[in-house]
Write a structure and sequence with these properties.
Blueprint: E1 6-10, H1 17-28, E2 32-34, H2 35-43, H3 47-72, E3 76-79, H4 88-97, E4 99-104, H5 107-114, H6 128-146, E5 149-152, H7 158-176
Helix pairs in contact: 1-7, 2-3, 3-4, 5-6
Amino acid sequence: MRGTKNIFLVGLMGAGKTTVGRQLACALRLPFEDSDRTIEARTGVTIPFLFEQEGEAGFRLREKQIVDELTAGEGVVLATGGGVVLDADNRAHLKGRGCVVYLRAPIEILVARTAHDRNRPLLQGTNPHARLRQLLEIRDPLYREVADVILDTSNRSIRVVVRELLQRLDRYARLRGD
């Protein structure tokens, strides 16, 4: 894919940002970063522990610093946390520093994909389906605001998703004249 220096993946938890991002980075021969994993590596603790100790607000401050740093370079595929778009500065960095891909899937698929994952502090309540629906209602307009490409990941293999994404990114670069 010509021209686009960075690719940033946004979307709700379970949409496939990390899985797709790794494969996309491999296909493009670019380094892969995951903002949540970077936060965990730097703090030495898990995201759920950070939420427990610092609350969501504390976590979001750490996320903001990491996103600013990881989006500042060139030539990276970055999987972001699902709530990254809640912060206006994050949205500006994503939109201004690369091509933003919104990965999406229906709530039922997101629930199935995240059902056994205990590393999702926002889904630890009694009704993950309702919580995901609530998060989507708030975040979908923000994902769409920053997105250059929107791609549905439901009921498709990673290989098919990555192949389509590569085609869409190439088309995006050509339209921009890159």
